[in-house]
Each structure stands twice: as structure tokens, then as C-alpha cells.
Design a protein that fits this description.
Blueprint lengths: L9 H4 L6 E5 L3 E7 L5 E3 L9 E2 L1 E5 L2 E4 L1 H5 L8 E3 L21 H20 L4 E6 L5 H13 L3 E7 H12 L12 E9 L4 E9 L2 E10 L4 H20 L7 H20 L2 E8 L2 E8 H25 L9 E5 L6 H11 L12 H17 L7 E3 L6 E6 L6 E7 L7 E8 L8 E7 L9 E8 L11 E8 L5 E7 L2 E2 L2 E5 L5 H12 L6
Parallel strand pairs: 1-8, 8-9, 10-15, 12-16
Antiparallel strand pairs: 1-2, 2-3, 2-4, 5-6, 5-7, 10-11, 11-12, 13-14, 17-18, 17-20, 19-22, 20-21, 21-25, 22-23, 23-24
Helix pairs in contact: 3-4, 5-10, 6-7, 6-8, 8-9
The chain binds adenosine-5'-diphosphate and magnesium ion.
Length: 522
């Protein structure tokens, strides 16, 4: 090992960093790198698996992440955090863990930290990464994801929308990146991503190595777990009907039942019937369930995805005839009902050529590779154009009704980067500050939108006369993050974006130290 120190010289020191992509999923996370030939490969974790459950178990002083943590849902449910991604953007994870409140991004950071440590065993250190987010994530959740990367000791080169990443992996696999390959024909691809906790649909146009999102929509609270829940409730109701008690009342029994039901759901993807057993307080119920029955009791969930899919296609200005491929990603697209529904809607068989578990992380690794080589002065190998998934607005007061309302500045599905300038005028002479409340969402009512925070311009230059124009530019970056610029007469002004529900730099630093300096898991 001594030989590995600094003197191994040029090779180690000039080594280009490894391009790593991380799919930080609601239920499973995946890490991939580019190999020496620039092809994405998934890295297995310390347990030897390609996918790691996004679950964290606070076992006294120990923190366990992944498969073992997922098992603990059946024995120590109150100390286990799952689906923290669903809580991103909130101040705290929805339940206390070991008597403590955790910000959801800290839980996400613990998952990233495990992926980082496990990958480092195989490829040396991992520090620069691209992390994926659902296209439908709003700005606050995007920032929280970048913060999670920071807390895990990573440098987040960028975040990328999951469907875009899947489309890139698909394009790579189809040979669109190869100059002698498939060429630059224009193809419209609809990416349907149904994971464990989120649903995303995006219409992309791929022209050779140019990836352009045309429209995107989704639901951050719809995924495979809602299908599981239907089974859980079905079994629990049967238990109540026959025995008179509710097995869901005990968190561990609920956890076990949940696992049983998820298993049954997976079985029903390949078989026509299965049985679920539920034991509680010495009593037992055994239920047979057919695929058809399961499909009936979850039809409304599938319909919701169909509705959103149709709407997104319409927002992209396309019809099904214009769609060349329907690309499936996310574990839940293994349910046969998904393919059937999409075949019926689109009139063509959906494409299952990319791995539903790996495509997203592979696309992220390809982007990481591109960004790293760009840093090294090389020309980018592909290009991405995104749209924003939520409208950006400011809270104004309607002079007629005197009510607060959301004034949309950058409507959703605008090509990014997009900027909008608004001219504010000082009201009084010598005004010292301006305050703007920024929201994201489609509703007219600010309360139904996601609160990004307040932007204060302070101090304004001294002695400005009343009605001095102040230019405020809101800019969505390509990755959906917000930047604000303020100027008066062309001179930029100091301003501060005070965010709701995000951690301060000191808090981030202290989490980073805590998370990255934990002793290596055994
Ligand atoms: P996420 O991106 O939200 O982490 P994934 O894409 O990894 O999710 O998908 C996980 C979901 O896929 C889980 O709800 C899981 O139950 C479901 N899933 C995985 N395999 C199957 C299968 N064979 N049949 C039905 N659902 C499946
Ligand atoms: Mg996913």
C-alpha cells in the first residue's frame, strides 16, 4: 500500500476524476460510473447488490443504510426512515427517529454517503457526482437534493431530471452518440417513469446528441407504494372483518404486512395469482389475490398516470402519431397493467430496452462524464435542453380585490435557462429596501403554491427619489435552480434570498462533518 502514496506520481495525480451518476430514488438508489471506454456501468454496493434500498435505520448510536435498514421496518419500524424523498422541501422528516427530528435532506445524505463509501471501495475515491431528481421536483426540493449531496461529502456537479437521464441512457444505448451510428434523425420519445414514490412523465425530442424536453409533468406523491398500500388496506380490512382488530395499528406488524404486500405485488407481475398471509396477536388471515383483482383495486391510480400522460403530450403540442417511442423506466413499470395501458393509449408497444432500475443512474453518469470533460476543456458530447416543471411567480396584491395573488413570471414548460425581468419602482423617496415573496406553482392563491422564500434588496442606494426603477431578474438555470439578479441603472445591487425550510450553511457544515466522519460501516 505504501507504493500508492504521492510518488506513484503522474498517474494518480493527473488522473481524470471518475464520472459518477447517482439515482437517489424514493425507494431504491443506484450509483453508476463510466468505464474506460466511456460506457456507463452500475456499481454494486457492499452487500453485492446493484440497487440499494433508500432506507435508514437509527439503531441506537449506529446508523444503518440499505437492505438491513429495510428489514428493520418489520422489527423496529419507529426507528426507520423510508421514503424521505417524499418529504424533501419540508423542514423535518414526518416522524421522530430515536426521539430526534431530522431534516429529510440529512436522511438523503446518509443514503448518498453509503453509496459513496461503497463505491469508493471499488473505484477509489468518489467525490464529483451528478444526482438525479424527478422532473417534477420544484426548486425547493432541487436545492434540498444538492444540499444532501454536500452533506454527504460530495461535490454535486449538477442535478439532472430523471426522465432526461433515462432518455440519455437510451440514446447512448441506441448508438445516437456514435458519429457513424444512428445519425441525427429527429425522434420524439415519451418517458414514463413510475417508481416507488413518484411518477414522472416527460416528452423529449432526441436529435442525434441533442436532447430537448418539450413538456413535463408528474406527481411527487404517486408510486409503487400506493399500489402496495391498496393491498395492505385490503388485507387489513379482511382482518378486521373476520377477527375484529386492525393489524395496521402496530407499526411492526404494519411494516411486515407492507413487505408481504410488496412481494405479492411483484409476484403478480409475473403470475396470475398469489396469497398474502397476515399474522397479528396470534391470529392469522390468509388471502388469495388474483392479478385481475389487484388491477381492479388500483385502476384509479393507473388512470391518474394515464391522465397526466395525455396532458403532457398535449402540452408538448404532439399527438400519439408524433411519438416514436414510449420509454418505460422505474420499477413499477414492470406491472403488466402499465404496458397494457400505454399500448392502448399510444397504439404502439412501449419500449422496455433500457433497464428500468439502471437507466436513470446511467444517464446521470453520462452527464457527469460530459461535465468533467468539459471542465478539461473538451467539447461537450451531447446537449440537453430542459423545461421548468412549475411556474415561477411573485406574490402581488390585486388592486381590485385587495387579495394576495400569485403573479406568474415564468410559466411552466418554458425552455431553460429562462429569465424574466420585473421592474419595481420605489414608492417613497429614500426608500431603503424592497421585499419580494417568491412562489412556485400553478394556483392563483399563493398559499397553494410552494414557498421558495423572500428576496430582500437591502440596502438600496441612499437618497433614491420616489419611483426609481429597480430591475429584478429571476432566472431559472438549466437544472431548474433559481438565480436572482437585482440592479438599479445597470449597477447590480446586493440582495438576499431568504429561503423557507432550508438549512443554514452552518447546519449544512455540521451535518457534513457528522455524516462523513462516522466510522466506516462494518
Ligand atoms: P424509485 O425511483 O422511486 O426509488 P424504483 O424505480 O426503484 O423507484 O421502483 C421501485 C418500485 O418498483 C417499488 O415500489 C417496487 O415495489 C416496484 N417494483 C419493482 N419490481 C417490481 C415488479 N416486478 N412488479 C411490480 N412492481 C415492482
Ligand atoms: Mg426512480
Amino acid at each position: 500500500m505504501l507504493f500508492r502514496s504521492s510518488k506513484t506520481g503522474s498517474q494518480t495525480m493527473n488522473r481524470t476524476p471518475i464520472a459518477v451518476g447517482i439515482d437517489l430514488g424514493t425507494t431504491y438508489s443506484v450509483i453508476a460510473r463510466l468505464d474506460n471506454l466511456g460506457r456507463p456501468v452500475t456499481l454494486v454496493n457492499a452487500e453485492g447488490d446493484k440497487i440499494t434500498p433508500s432506507v435508514v435505520f437509527f439503531d441506537g448510536a449506529n446508523i444503518v443504510v440499505g437492505k438491513e435498514a429495510a428489514k428493520a421496518l418489520a422489527t423496529d419500524a419507529p426507528a426507520v426512515a423510508d421514503c424521505a424523498k417524499r418529504d424533501m422541501g419540508q423542514r423535518f422528516y414526518h416522524k421522530l427517529l430515536g426521539g430526534r427530528q431530522f431534516p429529510p435532506e440529512a436522511i438523503q445524505a446518509l443514503i448518498l454517503d453509503k453509496l459513496r463509501r461503497d463505491a469508493a471501495r471499488m473505484v477509489g475515491s468518489v467525490d464529483q457526482v451528478v444526482v438525479t431528481v424527478p422532473a417534477y421536483f420544484d426548486e425547493v426540493r432541487r436545492k434540498a437534493t444538492q444540499d444532501a449531496g454536500f452533506m454527504a461529502g460530495l461535490k454535486v456537479l449538477d442535478i439532472i431530471n430523471e426522465p432526461t437521464a433515462a432518455a440519455i441512457a437510451f440514446g447512448f444505448q441506441e448508438g445516437f452518440f456514435d458519429p457513424q451510428g444512428a445519425g441525427s434523425a429527429k425522434r420524439n420519445v415519451l418517458v414514463y417513469d413510475l417508481g416507488g414514490g413518484t411518477f414522472d412523465v416527460t416528452v423529449m425530442q432526441i436529435e442525434g446528441t441533442h436532447f430537448r424536453a418539450l413538456a413535463t409533468d408528474g406527481d411527487v406523491r404517486l408510486g409503487g407504494q400506493d399500489w402496495d398500500q391498496r393491498l395492505v388496506d385490503y388485507v387489513a380490512e379482511e382482518f378486521i372483518r373476520t377477527i375484529g382488530i386492525d393489524p395496521r395499528e402496530d407499526p411492526n406488524t404494519d411494516g411486515r404486512l407492507r413487505r408481504e404486500c410488496e412481494d405479492a405485488k411483484r409476484t403478480l407481475s409475473t403470475r396470475l395469482k398469489t396469497t398474502i398471509v397476515c399474522d397479528y396477536k396470534g391470529q392469522s388471515v390468509k388471502l388469495e389475490i388474483t392479478r385481475q383483482k389487484f388491477q381492479e383495486m388500483t385502476q384509479d391510480l393507473l388512470d391518474r398516470t394515464a391522465f397526466t400522460t395525455r396532458q403532457t403530450l398535449q402540452a408538448a403540442g404532439l399527438t400519439w402519431q408524433d411519438v416514436d417511442r414510449v420509454l418505460l423506466t422505474g420499477g413499477s413499470t414492470r406491472m403488466p397493467a402499465v404496458s397494457e395501458m400505454l399500448r392502448e393509449l399510444s397504439g404502439k408497444p412501449p419500449d422496455t430496452s433500457v433497464s428500468p432500475d439502471e437507466a436513470v443512474s446511467h444517464g446521470a453518469a453520462l452527464l457527469a462524464g460530459m461535465l468533467l470533460s468539459k471542465q478539461g476543456g473538451k467539447r461537450p458530447t451531447f446537449e440537453i435542453k430542459n423545461v421548468n416543471s412549475h411556474s415561477l411567480g411573485l406574490v402581488g396584491v390585486d388592486p381590485k380585490t385587495d387579495r394576495r395573488r400569485n403573479v406568474v413570471m415564468i410559466p411552466r414548460n418554458t425552455v431553460l435557462p429562462a429569465a424574466h425581468k420585473k421592474v419595481f419602482r420605489t414608492q417613497k423617496p429614500k426608500q431603503s429596501s424592497i421585499l419580494m415573496q417568491i412562489v412556485e406553482g400553478e394556483s392563483m392563491s399563493p398559499d397553494d403554491c410552494s414557498q421558495i422564500g423572500k428576496c430582500t434588496v437591502y440596502p438600496l442606494p441612499k437618497n433614491l427619489p420616489a419611483r426609481t426603477p429597480i430591475d429584478v431578474t429571476f432566472r431559472y438555470e438549466e437544472n431548474g435552480r433559481l438565480a436572482v439578479m437585482v440592479s438599479v441603472a445597470g449597477k447590480s445591487l446586493k440582495h438576499e434570498l431568504v429561503r423557507d425550510n432550508t438549512l443554514t450553511q452552518e447546519q449544512l457544515d455540521s451535518w457534513r462533518t457528522f455524516i462523513t466522519s462516522r466510522p466506516d460501516a462494518p
